[in-house]
Amino acid sequence: MFAATPPAGGREEIYQIGVDGTNLECVTCGVSTNITANLFKPVPFQDDSGRVLVQTVQSNGSYTNAVLEDGPNGKVLASGELHALLRGTPDGSSFDNLEALFMHHTHRSLRD
Question: What is the three-class DSSP state of 4?
């Protein structure tokens, strides 16, 4: 997974591509369009839930986080307090593993 701007413009989106370089897919295009911030640093959860932690960055440089997940009507970006987003991990034990992964990618603690 990686972040890029779609050819038509707009916010930076999250894409995935097959290991052989085929099957390029924008996984966030058209998802939660009320979130206009650019999307960066996709980090898939390691609990097989299919959820992806992404960083959202405003034009002024401020950022927060969102979780890309399946909703009742398709994919959604759930944004808000990161601790609250992570509290709902399916097995209830993913916080420490995700925190280590988050710190590796951002050099920040989830507990700050």
Answer: strand
29 token code pair: 């295009």
Residue/partner pairs of 46-51 with CB below 8 Å, 24 or more apart: 46/94, 46/97, 46/98, 46/101, 47/89, 47/90, 47/91, 47/94, 49/89, 49/90
45's tokens: 């959860």
pLDDT for 109: 45
H helices of the chain, in order, are 82-87, 94-106
Distance CA 32, CA 92 (A): 26
Q: Answer yes or no: pTM beyond 0.85.
A: no
What CA–CA distance (Å, rounded) separates 57 from 40?
A: 7
